[in-house]
């Protein structure tokens, strides 16, 4: 979690891992243990080594202790399912909802193929339509009612064909259970397939053109694919099943095209899964000469290359 700077559905409200770490103990390659960060909310003394190690994928040091920020549970939590006739209207609703200032804790996008699969396999009634799943937090029930009314108004104005809202805890948990077990459901439904999984992220305003590009890319390569993402923070996952080598190669081609488009739109090759080996080839395209600075940091902290070797950087 820490070394990968992991994130998820509720990043919209609570941020990624890096936003919830106050201090850490890190073991360096030479055996030293150092303390980075502080339990103080504010700290302006020296370099921000805390966030250097968070997301470094174990290439600079090994995190041995961490002090995390805790957040109180909201008093009222509402779950929302909104379906739309087109991907365009659904992703437009994402941009509009994020501009309202509502206390949105989660805002997920499912394309029609994903929503239809989950409807058939998991017994939900989302239908074969692009779907938004939301969680809205409020301090009081009256505030929740007003917030939900505004969310419904926005969705209806953008052509929602169905809008369901609930404050029932069991119904909300069922919605998230289906969403979070989505990939397991896909693997069970498409037995014997391997998968190409993408994890790109862009500014919220660029989310609609990114989704449009993915649709065009899949269609152009004659690929079956599923789009699902943490739309509220601009993160999109594309899942492509394949069984044979020609299809795998086309899936790789699609991955490259989509990653390059995300970078072109001011985004990143990976929003939360990390670089590892697979995304290393995109590092220079995304960061330019800053990769040289990263290499220098790696050389300084791990001169013998013993910490998670072969990760992050493209081979020279």
From TrEMBL:
SUPFAM superfamilies, A to Z: FAD-binding/transporter-associated domain-like, FAD-linked oxidases, C-terminal domain
**Alphabetical UniProt keywords:** FAD, Flavoprotein, Oxidoreductase
> Which cofactor does the UniProt annotation name?
FAD
Instruction: Quote the EC number.
Output: 1.1.2.4
Entry's Gene Ontology BP terms? lactate catabolic process
InterPro entries, sorted: FAD-bd_oxidored_4_C, FAD-bd_PCMH, FAD-bd_PCMH-like_sf, FAD-bd_PCMH_sub2, FAD-linked_Oxase-like_C, Vanillyl_alc_oxidase_C-sub2
Q: Which GO terms describe its molecular function?
A: D-lactate dehydrogenase (cytochrome) activity; D-lactate dehydrogenase (NAD+) activity; FAD binding
The residues covered by the FAD-binding PCMH-type domain are 1-73
Q: Which family does it belong to?
A: Belongs to the FAD-binding oxidoreductase/transferase type 4 family.
Q: What is this protein called?
A: D-Lactate dehydrogenase, cytochrome c-dependent
Tell me the classification of the organism that encodes this protein: unclassified sequences, metagenomes, ecological metagenomes
